[in-house]
């Protein structure tokens, strides 16, 4: 096995605000070079996809390791240096060190006194308030800063326990404002926290930058800002690998009040292969297991969002699932994206029971690509989701009965039924036409893979399209069988839709009619031209046009409006993989038409170039693509519904923008 040479450790800020050393290069080498192991054979390769800041939409970066890998490491306190002083170590040394850390930080700890401050806006709330240390706290002045980056712009939170240390009150100093009495500090804590939240980063700006440096500075400013910043740091916890989880668990085990701050546990960047090459090594380290995960959930009683994915499914045993659904009364969002392991299916099956409470707290549920879950699980859980707003069951075994069992009190805005082969066209149409829970839909995917399954034929679409709500912003009919007559039914929808994925059997000439009125010079067409209302489409999915079905000669001709300025605000056109390869050979023609090509994973797009300012020659800043219904995403054409508002990254980015249907 090749082993890379040791390199100097770089200090970065972890999701806990803890500076730490880079992971051992030995493990990075093993991750790249090792063969596939049996416990990973059924999983897709880890792929972290995130959006890049650009004046053009659909700009992504893709890596095989998490964006957090270089920004996490082992700090000196939690990871004592090896006897040789090297930052690298052998496999056995790493495992021994981790085991030592685990035993060290699971010892009982006496809790210093703290107090709870209720929010000004809701003085009776125990969920929205803030935990503070004793009045004599001066921890922001005593946080030790280590290393070459020692400055007030970087805080070493590995001694975060000083937050609760009782120290003498500061003596009064001269100046316009007494300590703690500045105008900014007199703001209610919830307002301060809302301001500070704007400085937090869900995803590092690049693979080597430190996260949340501004938050580190605020921790060193004053007691009031320290308290508000601490809430921001601990409210949303991202876990990229098991060692970070172990450190986080150690912190909240020592200081239980920190656990009450946590509102989100995010594992979308989690990749156990970053540190260990086999399941046996991961099990021996005991960093993240079913037992430690359950302990973490016990210590975070106010958790509202739990975001998992396929690399965590073996650790989601019956006790963990029971805790999530029945033991966390404030939990609102759960995501099990891609979880398909036998252990996960058996655990879920064992806990689901008709004896469950009639109402669950979950509002946003994603079982995206949970291919192995039996239908009975969905038929048991869904009727209990009285306050459901987001439901992603793409690729699952949901049935018409489960869909119809959604409570009438639900108010669903996001619904993903892509590739649900047990649904029928009649069941879906009746549900969308008559169920009161879907009258305010904003996102609806009814996509199928036309190569293997068809949900809607032409007659079914004639019934479906007229009953769709006017609140829709995104609609996918990919895989359905369409006819030219459907253009008349699609035209009214394009006046409020921003995303549209069309099905098969249309031509580009049919699609062109969505952007321009008919011109046959009869009375009806003349009236249509007079009454014409421009479309609102920003994204058009033509990926069901395979091979020669997409007529490139017509697309670039003067008679087609799709690539012309007249089609604005259209910015993104998705094409099939084989078509993208053809268009790529004519990249010059694409640029002459004012478009560029972009691709990510197995998907490819044509993206309209922004016009240039006549005076400066610089591109004019266009619509950045941010919409409230996208839940944090900027790009167009997402194929997975987010259940938490966050920046796109990790495996969720891969499922949203990097994969075929």
TrEMBL record:
Record field: compositional bias (Basic and acidic residues): 31-42
Swiss-Prot/TrEMBL GO biological process terms: SCF-dependent proteasomal ubiquitin-dependent protein catabolic process
Domain of life of the source: Eukaryota
GO cellular component: SCF ubiquitin ligase complex
Region (Disordered): 1-49, 74-119
Comp. bias regions, Low complexity: 76-92, 99-114
Protein name as it appears in the record: F-box protein
């Amino acid at each position: 096995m090749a082993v890379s040479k040791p390199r100097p450790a770089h200090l970065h800020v972890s999701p806990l605000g803890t500076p730490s050393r880079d992971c051992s290069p030995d493990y990075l080498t093993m991750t790249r070079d090792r063969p596939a192991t049996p416990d990973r054979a059924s999983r897709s390769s880890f792929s972290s996809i995130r959006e890049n800041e650009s004046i053009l939409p659909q700009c992504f970066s893709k890596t095989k390791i998490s964006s957090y890998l270089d920004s996490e490491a082992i700090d000196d306190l939690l990871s004592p240096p090896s006897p040789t002083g090297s930052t690298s170590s052998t496999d056995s040394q790493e495992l021994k060190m981790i085991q030592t850390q685990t035993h060290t930080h699971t010892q009982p700890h006496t809790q210093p006194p703290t107090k709870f401050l209720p929010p000004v806006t809701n003085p009776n709330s125990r969920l929205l308030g803030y935990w503070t240390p004793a009045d004599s706290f001066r921890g922001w002045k005593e946080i030790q800063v280590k290393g070459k980056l020692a400055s007030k712009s970087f805080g070493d939170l590995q001694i975060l326990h000083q937050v609760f240390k009782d120290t003498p009150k500061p003596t009064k100093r001269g100046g316009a404002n007494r300590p703690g009495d500045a105008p900014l500090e007199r703001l209610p804590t919830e307002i301060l926290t809302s301001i500070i939240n704007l400085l937090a980063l869900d995803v590092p700006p690049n693979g080597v930058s430190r996260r949340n440096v501004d938050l580190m500075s605020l921790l060193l400013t004053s007691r009031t800002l320290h308290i508000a910043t601490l809430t921001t740091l601990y409210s949303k916890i991202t876990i990229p690998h098991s060692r970070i989880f172990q450190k986080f668990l150690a912190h909240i085990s020592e200081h239980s009040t920190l656990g009450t701050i946590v509102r989100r546990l995010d594992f979308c960047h989690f990749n156990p292969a970053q540190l260990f090459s086999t399941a046996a090594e991961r099990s021996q380290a005991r960093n993240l297991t079913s037992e430690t995960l359950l302990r973490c959930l016990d210590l975070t009683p106010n958790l509202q969002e739990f975001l998992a994915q396929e690399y965590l499914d073996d650790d989601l045993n019956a006790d963990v699932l029971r805790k999530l659904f029945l033991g966390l009364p404030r939990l609102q969002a759960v995501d099990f994206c891609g979880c398909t392991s036998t252990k996960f299916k058996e655990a879920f099956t064992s806990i689901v029971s008709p004896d469950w409470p009639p109402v669950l707290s979950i509002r946003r549920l994603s079982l995206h690509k949970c291919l192995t879950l039996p239908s009975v699980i969905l038929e048991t859980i869904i009727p209990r989701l009285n306050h459901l707003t987001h439901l992603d069951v793409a690729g699952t075994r949901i049935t018409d009965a489960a869909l119809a069992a959604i409570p009438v009190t639900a108010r669903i805005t996001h619904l993903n039924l892509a590739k649900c082969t047990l649904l029928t066209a009649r069941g879906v149409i009746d549900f969308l036409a008559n169920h009161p829970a879907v009258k305010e839909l904003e996102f609806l995917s009814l996509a199928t893979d036309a190569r293997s399954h068809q949900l809607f034929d032409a007659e079914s679409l004639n019934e479906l399209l007229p009953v769709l709500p006017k609140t829709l912003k995104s609609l996918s009919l990919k895989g359905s069988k369409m006819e030219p007559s459907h253009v008349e039914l699609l035209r009214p929808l394009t006046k409020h839709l921003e995303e549209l994925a069309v099905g098969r059997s249309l031509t580009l000439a049919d699609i062109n009619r969505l952007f321009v009125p008919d011109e046959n010079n009869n009375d009806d067409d003349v009236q249509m031209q007079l009454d014409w209302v421009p479309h609102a489409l920003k994204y058009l999915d033509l990926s069901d046009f395979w091979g020669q079905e997409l007529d490139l000669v017509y697309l670039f001709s003067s008679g087609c409006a799709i690539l012309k300025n007249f089609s604005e605000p259209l910015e993104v056109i998705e094409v099939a993989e084989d078509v993208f390869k053809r268009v790529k050979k004519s990249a010059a023609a694409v640029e002459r038409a004012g478009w560029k090509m972009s691709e990510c994973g197995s998907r490819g797009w044509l993206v309209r170039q922004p016009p240039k300012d006549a005076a400066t020659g610089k591109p004019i800043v266009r619509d950045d693509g941010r919409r409230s219904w996208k839940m944090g995403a900027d790009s167009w054409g997402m194929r997975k519904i987010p259940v938490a508002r966050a920046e796109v990254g990790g495996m969720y980015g891969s499922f949203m923008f990097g994969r075929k249907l």
